[in-house]
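> forwarded from #structure-qc
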């Protein structure tokens, strides 16, 4: 489990650095690969981040962004990174066995 924890921490850092490099594409989630399929599981949201404000929660399974599937963690990061501050994106998530769409307004990386 130590490796998985390090991987999540590294991914969180990657997302932050990727967002800063482009000055865009930040929603404020820590994610991990889904056990099945190509989605990602939200591990945590950054307090006050766009994801937290939109109501995303730990254990939400994200399977689509703007109606399109993506391939794993790297695919999710690339899709989010490709958006600019102020873009409204729709994440299709499964929570407690129910599918729902959550609208998130992309922001800038938080200090």
């Amino acid at each position: 489990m130590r490796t998985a924890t390090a991987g999540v921490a590294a991914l969180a850092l990657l997302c932050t650095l990727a967002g800063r490099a482009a000055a865009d594409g930040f929603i404020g989630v820590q994610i991990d690969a889904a056990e099945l399929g190509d989605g990602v599981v939200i591990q945590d949201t950054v307090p006050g981040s766009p994801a937290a404000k939109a109501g995303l929660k730990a254990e939400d399974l994200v399977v689509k962004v703007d109606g399109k599937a993506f391939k794993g963690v790297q695919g999710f990061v690339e899709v989010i990174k490709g958006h600019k501050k102020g873009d409204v994106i729709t994440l299709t998530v499964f929570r407690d066995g129910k599918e729902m769409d959550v609208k998130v307004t992309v922001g800038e990386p938080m200090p």
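QC bot note: Residues 1-23 have pLDDT under 50 and may be disordered. The first helix runs from residue 2 to 22.
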